[in-house]
Structures are given as C-alpha cells and as structure tokens.
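tl;dr need the bound structure. longer version: we got a ligand (manganese (II) ion) that a collaborator sent over and nobodys looked at where it sits. i said id run it. heres the input, straight from their email, havent touched it
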Amino acid sequence: MTPTRSTKQDAYTPRPEHHFTFGLWTVGNPGRDPFGEPTRPAIGPVEIVHKLAELGAYGVNFHDDDLVPRGSSSTERDRIVREFRKALEETGIKVPMATTNLFGDPVFRDGAFTSVDANVRRHALQKTMRAMDLGKEFGAETYVFWGGREGTETNASKDPQEAIKWFRDAINFLSEYSIAQNYNYKFALEPKPNEPRGDIFLPTIGHALAFIYTLDHPEMVGLNPEIAHDTMAGLEFTHGVAQAMEAGKLFHIDLNAQKPGRYDQDHRFGSEDLKAAFFLVKLLEDSKWPGMRHFDSHAYRTEDQQGVWDFAAGSMRTYLILKEKAAQFNQDAEIQALVGELAARGGKPGARVKYSSQLAQSIRDEKFDLEGLRAKGYGYERLDQLTMELLLGVR
Ligand code: GCO
Ligand code: MN
Ligand code: MN
C-alpha cells in the first residue's frame, strides 16, 4: 500500500462525521481516456476501503461491475464480496449508495432502459435488480440512476416521447421491485446533457424533476445532481441544487470541478470556480442538508497512486475549508450588515404573498414609491467584493 504523505492534522482534517464518500470508480480510476491507455494500475476495492478510512472518509460507493467484474464466476463473486465485507468491518467504512453499470457493455450502446431493443431493456432491468440486491447486501440506502447511454446521436433512431415512456416504465418497475423486496431504497436520478451519448435524455435537473412527478412512486425518487454536468450545460449549479432541495428532492450529490464548454472533466472538488464551490458548500451547510458529500471525480491522468490519494485528501480538505469560510461569511459583521439591509427590504423574515381577495384589493390600491425604488441600489458589488476578500483570505 502506498504510504500516505505525512499530512498535518488540523481543523480541515476530514472525519467520518463529515460524511464524505468516494466511488470505487473514482479513486480506482486508472487514467484511461479516449486517446490513451491507463497511466496507473487499478487499485482493488479492499485497498481503497483501507486507504479511504485512513484519510477520514465515511463511505465508499460502487457500481455492480466495479466490485464484481463482469464475467466473474460465482466462486469469485463470493470471494470478492467476502473480502470487501471484511475490509468494511475492519475500517467502519459504510456503503451508503450503490448503482448499476448500464453503459460499459456494448449491449447498452443504444441505451439500457431506452434502447429501441426490448430485449436490451429487459436485460437492463435484470442487471439493475441484481445490482440492487448486491447494494442491499452492504446496506446501501440510496440507489443512483445515471443514464449515460440513455439518449441518441440521431433523432431518426427513436421517438423521444416513446423513450421517455420506456424510461418511466423502468423506474416504475424498479420502484415496485424495491418495495416488494422491502429494500426501502431512495432512487436518485443523475442528469447529464451529453457524453457518452451525443444527447442524453433527462439532461438537466429541471428535466429530471418534471419527470419524477409523472412516476407511480414520486416519493421514492429524487435527484443526484453533479457539478460537472450542469456546468457542461452552462447552468448555475447551486440554483439547480437549491430547487431540488426546496422540493425535498436532493437525495445525493456528486461533487467535482469542471470548466464550462468541455468534456466531462470530473476534476478535484474546488479546483475550478472556487466562488461557485463556496456558494454550493454554503447552501448545503446553511441548510444542514443531511446527505452524503460524494466525490464523483478522479485524479489527473498525470498522477501515480500517491497523486490519487493527494486528490482524495484534497477534495475533502477543500470542502472543509469552504465550510469554514461559509461560517465566517455568516459571522462577518460588515457582510451581515449588508445581508441584513437586504433582509429588511424583503419585509418581515419570510414575508410572502398568499392570495386573498382583500390582499388582491390592497395590492391593487397600493401606492409605490417607484422613484425611490428605481433610485436605490442593492449593494451587491460591495457584498461580492467582501465575499471575494474573505475567500482570498484577507478578511
Ligand atoms: C459520469 C457520471 C458517473 C455516474 C456514476 C454513478 O459522468 O461518468 O457522473 O460517474 O455518477 O456512474 O452513477
Ligand atoms: Mn460526471
Ligand atoms: Mn456522477
């Protein structure tokens, strides 16, 4: 096992109660890309579990095929499962989430739940049910659906309305399976606009949210949004997360970093657009969101195994630093004075309109000081600059 670089213990040292998780496929990523071979050896599940425990993570997540490679015999499966379970017991590492690989096998090249081939669609159900069984063996509570191959390159191929119906049938079917098996899974749909398909169905948080309310069991189904995916689509991630959260639908989150307009980079959390990362952490922490802080990302392809653990430690450390910055923002007198002025403009805390005929009449009759409202600025330049100075460490 690669020795950990001697890292100092300080306020930003991750601990299990911070609920940081990694996928086997994230720290296990060997650096393959569409243009080149792996640049480092794959790391086995048992070593990953021990290393994540040493670094202070809470949990590890997996796809069926990450843990038990495709084509394993039942003896191999039993051995792998037994050794993985032993590692979990020795370290206390949990498995909060599981998922299915419905993208690697060429059988899924036209999609899994939305392949035009009905046999492929039923095979995808079979693979998912088996993977749900495997996830439950390790106590997973959240089940992620990332439809990487659910989509098209050409709309000549399938009727997109029909494809949505197939997708709905699959989620309804698997919801019933979870209920029948007493699995009590929460399903989390993960939107992505493209890659590996030219265009993927349910490409954004908004598409997925709207889809959920057409399901037979909308209460079981929520979102697993990912920073990289919304950034690829040019969207403001924190707004999407907030909308999912406000709807009670933020079931899981994939943290990483991404430059807009690129392939899915999945870089170390916080390594791009620090201010966006800060406001995301602030949202999650101010809301006391109880879910797992999952890192769906991997080390640069330049790295050896030491670099992988630097990447994992760095992801958690940056989150904790930003968490402290969020607390500082909430305590900074000058910032809070500006925030307080805005709150005062909002009326009583949480003042909202609710229709009644009297209120309608009174709003119709209300005299507004429009000159005053037009003239008064909002102070956002000052507020943003103070935020920047806080982030840059000079406050
Ligand atoms: C990606 C996705 C995946 C999923 C993972 C779990 O763009 O490759 O983000 O990493 O999150 O398959 O469902
Ligand atoms: Mn991704
Ligand atoms: Mn993801």
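gonna send this back to them w/ a short note. The domain at 11-331 is CATH 3.20.20.150 (TIM Barrel).
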